[in-house]
UniProtKB/TrEMBL annotation:
It holds the Pfam family CRAL_TRIO. GO terms for molecular function: RIG-I binding. This is SEC14 like lipid binding 1. Residues 331-507 form the CRAL-TRIO domain. Residues 3-174 form the PRELI/MSF1 domain. SUPFAM superfamilies: CRAL/TRIO domain (SSF52087), CRAL/TRIO N-terminal domain (SSF46938), Supernatant protein factor (SPF), C-terminal domain (SSF101576).
Amino acid sequence: MVQKYQSPVRVYKHPFELVMAYERRFPTCHLIPMFVASDVVDEETSEDGSTHRIERRCALDVDAPRLLKRIAGVDYVYFIQKNTLNRKERTLHIESHNETFSNRVIIHETCCYSVHPENEEWTCFEQTASLDIKSFFGFESTVEKIAMKQYASSIKKGKEIIEFYLKELEDEGIIHVPRWTPSSLPLALPRPTSLSTSPPVLPKLPVSPTVSIPLPADAKDSASQDAKQDSVALQSDSLTEILAGTPEDKLDADYIKRYLGDLTPLQESCLIRLRKWLQETHKGKIPKDEHILRFLRARDFNMDKAREILCQSLTWRKQHQVDYLLETWTSPQVLQDYYTGGWHHHDRDGRPLYILRLGQMDTKGLVRALGEESLLRHVLSINEEGLRRCEENTKVFGRPISCWTCLVDLEGLNMRHLWRPGVKALLRIIEVVEANYPETLGRLLILRAPRVFPVLWTLVSPFIDENTRKKFLIYAGNDYQGPGGLVDYIDKEIIPDFLGGECMCEVPEGGLVPKSMYRTAEELENEDVRLWTETIYQSASIFKGAPHELLIEIIDASSVITWDFDVCKGDVVFNIYHSKRAPQAPRKDPLGAHGITSPGGNNVQLIDKSWTLGQDYSMVESPLTCKEGESVQGSHLTRWPGFYILQWKFHNMPACSATNLPRVDDVLATLQVSSHKCKVMYYTEVLGSEDFRLVTVCVSGCQTHFSSVPHSAQFDVKWAEPVK
C-alpha cells in the first residue's frame, strides 16, 4: 500500500533570500543527528547566475533495530537530492528519492519554497511525499512504521531548523540579503563558523545498492521539511498540482493551528487530501474545514472511511435541505412551552453549554402532540445552532472550539419515560445525530440519575458510538455537588438555580402536555410524510440494463433545462435525448418481476426498445461519465420544442483487450458496485433563457452557512440537429 503525504502551506515571515539560509544545513546539520553526511554529486549554474542546480548524495543513520539493519545489510540509508534554486523567480524546488534498496522500496519527495502570493516579503513552503514498500524480507509493516516515525520526528523539527539559521544570520548581523538582479553575481550566504569544518567523509556503500531501511527523505530535506508533516507521501507530480492551485484552495499551517487545533502532520495531510478530493468531485459547495475534520476524527483519520460517511451525510443534508434549517424551521408553540432544553452560557473550556432537563420532559406527550419527525427536526436545529455557536466561541476565546457540552438533569425520570414509542423516537434521533454530527459532543454530564436510569441506559447505549460513550460522566443523587463534580467543568457563577446555583436559567420547566393537544396516529403520519418530503430532490436506482429516465416537455424553444445531481452509489453515464414523439407511458422498475427491487428510489424507462437512435430520437449532449461521490451541475439550451429525455444509465467498465490483464483498480471498482446497482439523487428545472442568465448572475456568489466554497454557475450550450 502506498502511503501518501501532503503538507499545508507553511509561511515564514521572512524574505525568500533570507530563508535560503536553508543551505547552511549542508553538508551536515547538528540539529538532525540522523543526517550523517552529504556529498555534492553534480552542480551547475546558469550563465547569468540566476539558476543554480545541485545534486547531493545524503547518508542517514536510521534509528532502526540492529537486527533489521543486519538483515538489510547496511548501516546507512542513502538518498539522492536535487535542488533547483531560481533566484530570478525566487523559488527553490527540491526533489529527492532513495538510492538504497530502491528495487524494494520507493520513496519520493518534492518540496518547494516560493514567495507568498500576497506579501513578497514572506516565504511559503509546501511538500508532498510518498512511500511504497513492495517487499522487505517480510518486515514490510515494521519498516513502514519506522519510516513514518522517523519522517514525523524530522518534520516537527523542520521549522525549528529554519528559524535557528535565521537567528544565526541575525546574530552575525545579516538582516537583509539583496534580491538577484541581472547584473548581480550569485550570492552565497556565509557558512556558520560552527559548521565550517571540512565536509566529513561520506560512509562508503557497495557499488550495487544493497538493502536499506526505507526512511522518508526527511533527513536529507529535514530543513526543507520545515513545513513537512508526519506521514510519508505523494507522487512527484503532486507538487505541480499544488502550485497550480489558487491560494484560496490551500490551507495555511497557521490557520489550521488557530481555527482547527494542533494536528499531527499525518492528520493535517488527511484533512488537506480529503478537502482537495471534495473540491474536485463536489463541484459546488463543500463543508467547512471544521466539519470535515470532525468526520476524520470520528474514523481515527482513516481517510477512506471518513470520506464514505461524509459523502453520505452531505447527500442527506442536501436532500433534506438541512443547510437552511435555522432559517426555515420555526419550533411549534408546544415545543417552546414543553421542550425542557436550551443553551446556557459555556463551560470552563469555552464550549457552548446545552442544558436538557430530561426528567421534567413529557416525552410521551410531545411525541403524541408532534410526532417523531417534528422532534427530530427540532433536535437537528439544536445541532445546527451548536455548530454556529462553536464558530462564534472560536472567535471569542481565540482558540479552536469544535464541540459543545451537554448537561442532562434526570431528576423526575420514571417509567413514563420508558414508553416504547418515546424510546423509539429517542433511538431514531440518536442514530441520525451520530451519523451526521460526529465529534460534536465534547462532554455529557448526567446529573441526579435515579434508579430507573440503568434500564434506559441499557436500551440506549448500544446505539451510541464507543468514543462518544467515553465522554459521559454520570452522577447519582447529589454527588455532582462535591469535589470532581459540576464545578470542575462549569464556573460556579453560571450553575443553574435548579441545581443549587445562583444563575437564572431560561430553560422551560416542562410539565405534562395537555391531552387536548394530542393528535391521531393518522394526522401524525401525514405530518411526518409532509415534513420529510419537503425536498426538491428525487432519488432513483439504476441497474445494469435498466437506466432511469426523466421526461421534460418543452413548449417554447430557447428554454433552458438545468440539472443538479449527486451520484450516491456506483458510476453512471448521463445522457440527454430529444424526440418529437411523446414516449409511451413509463415502465417502472421492470426488474421487480425478477425479484429485484430498488428500495430508496424509483426506476423508470421511457425510450422504447423499438426506437432507433437517429430516427426516433437524437442525442443532444455528449455522454458524461460520472463517478461515485461526484456532484454534477449543468444546463442545456433547447433549440426546438418537443420531448427531452434525461437518462442516467449504469456505467459498464471497458472491456480489456485479449493481450492485457485487467487493471486492479478496474476490478476493485467492479466489485464495489454490488448487485450492479447505482443510485442518484437529482433535481431538474426548466427556465426561460433570460431568466437563466439572470439566475446565473445572482447565483455566482451564493453560499450557505454550512459551506465554504461558492460555485459559479456555468452556461455551456451544445447544439444538435433534431430528428426529422
